[in-house]
Records
---
Amino acid sequence: MKKKSLLLLICCLVLLTGCWDQRLFKDAKLIMGATFDLTDDGQVKDTVSVLIPETGTERATEGNAHIETGIGDNLFDARNEIDKQLAYKFDPSKLEVLLIGEELAKQDIYSVLDGYYRAPRNNLSAEIAVVEGEAAEAFAVTTDQEPRISEHIVGLLDAVSDTTHSHGDNVQLICAELFEPGIDIALPLLTVDKDANKVNYKGLALFHDKHYHGTSLNAEQATLLLLMDNKKGKVARITRKVSEKGEPRMARYLSAEVTNHNRNLKITPSGGTISVDINLDLYVNVVEYPLDKLTDPNKITELEKKLSETLTKEAEEVISLLQEAHSDVLGIGRRTEAFHYDTWKQMDWEKDFKTITITPKVNVVIQEHGTIG
Amino acid sequence: MGYRRRKSKQDKLIEEQPGNEADVKEPEQPSYSQLSRNIEYLTKALKHSNDLKIRILNEGQAALLFFETLSDQEKLQENIFTPIENGKFDSISKLPNGKQTDDLEEALKVLLRGHALYIEEGSKSLAYFSVTTTYNRSVEEPENEKVVRGSHEGFVENIMININLVRKRLEHRDLTIKYFRVGKKTNTNIAIAYMDGITNPELVKEVEKRIKSVTADTILSPGFMEEFIEDNPMSPFPQTLSTERPDRVIANIMSGKVALMAEGSPTVLILPSTFFMFYQSPDDYNARWVSGTFIRLIRLMSFLIAIGLPAMYIAIIGFHFEVIPDDLVPPVKSAIDQIAYPPFVEAFIMVIIIELIREAGIRLPQPVGQTIGIVGGLVIGDAVIRAGLISNLMVIVVALTAIASFVVPSHELSTTLRLLTFPLIILASTLGFIGIVFGILFILIHLVKLESFGNPYFAPVSPLRIQDLKDTFVRIPLFKLDTRPKDANPIKEQSMGESREWKRNGKSKKSKQTKKSK
């Protein structure tokens, strides 16, 4: 008898509680991409790309994208606006990419990200980027490379991170750096070419704390910055002019892949301030140089010297841009705080970052020159 | 270190009760000297059964009784009448191949065993001759336990042939066979076989005690015995391994287990059994050890697939679709977007369809069974997807689960696995991943608690014995399996001496030296 009633109780417990909290995958409207812009009166404009699966086909397909826009006072308000226009429930848990418009980025990106960090069912591994102009325009682009625009942008961002053009950050990874004074972020900057119907990678948008300064690095500078930051992607290619003479014109250029690199960042405190030396050794494999004669050691030395000079000069430019944007992407502040805490206490990083001396030096060593002699 | 052997109070009570032991006195009835009274007693006891033949000999001075349905006419002629005709013996009662008794009850039993009974007027001594007829099929490979390499012999319905198959493979004086009679009415002949000196005597005693405690009228097959003697009949897991393969029986006897055979069934039970024994197949030992290990790992993986895959799938698409890899989201979404039912109902329909097809396929004759397989599998499978009742992913999941459950070399465990899918499906569809965790937790707790003849069922994982793991998840080379597994608590643990010394002596001096120093 006792056993029977216990069994009944368990059955009731399972079947009659009424709080079946299942979320059916088939009833979710999956948001694959989201963009945020600032409207003229300071509201948030959220444009999302919704996955519309193709049904009734024999083969599994990628599905199509449906673009929907909502304007609200903050992130969730804008989401609610979108939800009102969608069949089934708005679900951001498989978000692939998050794009932020230039104007909003210049103000404060954390204000829209806060909702992502706070609610548990958000995909924090969504990739994040800044779009020049209005971000929503990126979703208006129709590309035939991929069936959905969000997937196209994800592919683009993955590729630039592989080629050492961006850190490959996602929503999760930038969180700590947004709050830490000693380190800043640099997000990939995209541009929308409306006439050509394209989304392009432009460079790195330099952030100070939670906002975009407006200064950006171009693709070549981005690679150099990432190498100085010891963050080489799968490949890092450098193409530079190495001679003024030579015909045809393209023979004046040399392309190399960095096979190995050695970054040495040295902070020397002196009298309440610091000076920084960045030594970057690049071991490269020449992949294109039509003038050849790379078997000659003198030629190699000459090229190495030329490349080192060029790159050092460029590195200096990059550093000056960083200081101008007040964007401590290299985390010099964090290192100072960790290793020279007394000096750090004396300094006001908000102001002093612009004034410290940072001396970069790039040294190129040509190790290989491809499969031809 | 042996495993702790539990002995509850009840066990002791059974041991102390005298009535349960074999010392219950059999009824006796001394024979009479008058022929007619003897015959009258016997015919009455056998309820005047029509197939009992009484041949009156010597002008009414003697009679030969036998069941014509149990006796072989040729044997009768050969054993009894031919010697008499040859004139070497003048009376049937003096034939050397006959046995004597003066107990009519005993005479009844031998009659039922198919012997012929010779009764003489004026003599209390009854002679009986073995003229039993048997109809045997050949020792073919069992249909449900096929192997690729190795012996293709299988047990048959005759216990004598079965014991013969065992003895032929195990020519050692320590192989001990003990007979029992169970089933008050069926009087089934049962035998246990074990290696004296390897098998733990306590285990043998326990097995004997349990066999003797069976008081049922009918014992038809080892399946009956299994339920009477197993430790926990409420458990879904089979606690005795049944097999129809002599090689498997020998291997288990040699590792200190007891084999139980019964007349009338080719199935032999291995006592005690562990969970992992159900995943060992003779094929593992016939193949090279690397491939044997690989196949065994696949088989063990099939356990997880068989009980967990539908539950996992339901939990993912009903609760936690965040875990679907990004690239799989669009295909999965498009597969299930237009399905009318919740995944729980979908899975139930599909699992039950598969069970129906399987059961129908077994019951029907071979050619029709195949048709059912094709109609059920292909036509229904395709149609339910087109009709939008069930998503193609669910069909993949359930089909994979069914296949995984058939990988187990034991039919009983395969049924158990398919049964265990259901509670896990229910838990997954109500509580998601946490439900699966609870379900698997309960199953594991049960497995760890379960005992088979006082030995742990989940050995050697729990209690953990690293040494025995070498023939559990993997199968290391046979010459390294030099100790018997501890799960049956054998008294002789060493199973081989030094092997492959030639290799060591020839190649490496170092190991030779270390061996010497030992």
Note: The longest strand of chain B covers residues 175-182.
---
Amino acid sequence: MSAELTAAPAVSIPTTKKTIHRRTRLWSVRLVFVVVWLGSWELAATHWIDPFFYSKPSAIGERLAGWFTTGTAFGSVWTQLLVTLEEAVLGFVIGAVAGVVLGILLGRARFVAEVAAPFIKAANAVPRIVLASLFIIWFGLGLTSKVATAVVLVFFAVFFNAFQGAREVDRNLVDNARILGASRRQVLTSIVVPSATSWIFASLHAAFGFALIGAVVGEYAGADKGLGLLIANAQGTFDAAGIYAGMIIITVVALLAEWLLTLLENRLLRWRPPVRTSGEQRA
Amino acid sequence: MTVIALRNATKRFPGTGGQPHTAVRDLTFEVAAGEFVAVVGPTGCGKSTTLSLVSGLEPASSGEVEVDGAPVRGIPDGVGYMFQADAVMPWRSVIDNVAAGPRYRGLSKAEARTRAMVWVERVGLGPFAGYYPHQLSGGMRKRVALAQTLVNEPRILLMDEPFSALDVQTRQLMQDELLRLWQGTGAAVIFVTHDLEEAIALADRVVVMTSSPATVKAIFDVPLQRPRQVEEIRMTPEFVATYREIWESLRDEVARARQEVSRVG
């Protein structure tokens, strides 16, 4: 029911010594690309285009350095970062747990799933990001409204993959477990959940990104702390460099989270052949 | 003593286009304790359905299926089932795959592992106990499945073309292994295959099925001594004579199945 809503489990690619050599070359080319890109931007903003609108790498660097040395208009940049992180992590954990549990249960209850299908589809079609405004009316300017926005974004991403994963379980494995003496609950914990794990992890990579988006958009819609507030303030003062600086901090956080998730995934999915994963994003 | 009894057992599935599809009809045969029965028939005739009925995974549409004298409702006690496709859990090591049955049946992790290790050794996978299935060959995965089934000490062993995906040499090795492990357990075996040679080499009796919808066409005794060596027994005159006799019966069904396939496709 949801080909466009799910990210497929990562495909495995064996790594050899040859690919290590290839990877060094890959990274050098990437580095050259970044240097050319930033260099041409800097050059263009110095000579031809208006840096007031488009800013330039050196200005963004200065803004970042300023934030981290003297602080922002709202206090230390670390405070803002921690607030946003707290919201995103809470939203991620709550949304992911709820998504996994409900997705797996619904994936195994065929009739209930059929009853719920149109409602879930409708709920997924709602532009959920707009809910951020509603949550601010409900929960105020504090932490709760941002967490709620993040939860809503994370939940659906994880839910659909857990649901699909629970449905795609190999019938043979289930039959085999039943013959070996497994109860319904044991089939769920020893067969369905592990089978769905690779599907769930495929969605978790994207889901932390969604949690950050939820937190930042929530702050953007109204807050007294956080990176979203910094960006909103930068917009209000026509500070293009500030907007870019905020974006960069968020990107770095997302990449770090992705790296941590990959570590966790490799640990939990040790039984798979070695994999190289690539996160999929959908905003 | 009769352990498995099928009497006029019929299984219909909801088919495409509203018409029910009959997989097997009026199946009647019995298997005694300690007896090895092979079921042969043309590919796709419904042999596997027979096993589903005995295992309780699928209820019969009509007729009776009895295990230990009681009608089958749900999975009967003491049944082991080896599937055609790989059914080992890829996320568990060899030892933990084999320990699954005892764990499901309430043994502690340590006890289950101790018991599993015995069977891991018996199927010759001792040095690979900590490996994951993806690190093993197809034949080794079949050994895991065999140990996983046998660790529960089943009194009824159902096998659905378990070795059909293996190359010829590995298959013969596994057949010998199966006979060696089965001997003396007193388990009743139904072994489904489309390979008549395999059926004769392993079984005490061979049930020949008709083409779809399948029913029992004839049952043959296999007059071969045990213990057997499957590679060698194939060359004996008794084997060849038995093969010829059963093939006479099976040939028509295979030919008819082929005609049906070419008519449909």
Note: Residues 172 and 178 of chain A are 10 Å apart (CA to CA).
